[in-house]
Design brief:
Layout (H helix, E strand, L loop, with lengths): L2 E2 L9 E9 L5 E3 L1 E2 L13 E5 L4 E8 L8 E4 L11 E6 L1 H20 L3 E6 L4 E7 L7 H13 L4 E7 H6 L17 E7 L3 E4 L14 E8 L4 E8 L2
Parallel strand pairs: 1-4
Antiparallel strand pairs: 2-3, 2-8, 5-6, 5-8, 6-7, 9-10, 10-15, 11-12, 12-13, 14-15
């Protein structure tokens, strides 16, 4: 399996790595990587692999493969070929990754501002959303915008820690998603903790403090059924 450097430090922009395999679909596997694979509603990272020859392999997205293929780098069509044993520098498209980190952290604040179960979500660099089962409740776009921006301005620290599967099972209230279970790995689960604001399982990449998010707004709230409402978030530039 690829060593997932982004789990411990989401601010790493590049790393030295070695190609371990090219799978049947042309996906490139490395011994270690800073690239986050699509998962948990967050888009996979893009960037480049720089070869010792000076050639550059453009990576258009990163996904999870079969079995132990936990991080698969998908090259652009016509990119230079690589082979097992090749040394590379794996470098992110940092602007795209950082926007995803801002958005993903912001959605945790949205969870805190909207106290209902989450039925779905999507995290993109310019617009993101969460779907909520609100029952007989109601949502106010301006009120949610004001609450999220208040939490951003308070600049809460953000950190991650691991608990065991047993600890999660003993504390089911930590799981906000109603239909999807959090990712479990080797008997443990990663918790994202926004101090005093939100605590829930999450395997994505996040900021160190909420103040880095910048000002946002709820662009619209959509009716997606009798009980479901979709809350869309954009950066308010």
């Amino acid at each position: 399996m690829t060593e997932e450097l982004f789990r411990e430090d989401a601010y790493l922009k590049s790393c030295d790595a070695t190609v371990t395999r090219v799978n049947d679909l042309g996906g490139i596997l490395l011994d270690r990587s800073v690239f986050y694979p699509t998962g948990g509603g967050q888009a996979g990272d893009k960037g480049v692999l720089r070869l010792a020859s000076g050639e550059v392999v453009e990576i258009v997205t990163t996904v999870k493969g079969d079995g132990a293929e936990n991080v698969v780098h998908v090259p652009a069509e016509g990119a230079p070929t690589v082979a097992p044993g090749d040394a590379v520098v794996a470098a992110l498209d940092w602007d795209a990754r950082y926007a995803l980190m801002r958005m993903h952290t912001c959605l945790h604040l949205l969870c805190a501002a909207v106290p209902y179960g989450v039925t779905g979500g999507q995290i993109n660099a310019t617009k993101s959303r969460l779907d909520f089962d609100i029952g007989d409740g109601s949502l106010n776009k301006d009120a949610i915008t004001a609450e999220i921006n208040r939490l951003i301005a308070e600049d809460h620290p953000v950190s991650a820690r691991w608990i065991t599967d047993a600890e999660l099972d003993a504390n089911p209230e930590l799981v906000r998603t109603m239909s999807v279970q959090p990712p479990r790995s080797a008997g443990k689960v990663r918790l994202l903790d926004i101090d005093g604001v939100d605590l829930q399982p999450c395997g994505g990449t996040h900021l160190a403090r909420t103040g880095e998010i910048g000002k946002v707004r709820v662009s619209k709230i959509e009716n997606k059924g009798k009980r479901n409402r979709r809350v869309n978030i954009v950066f308010d530039n």
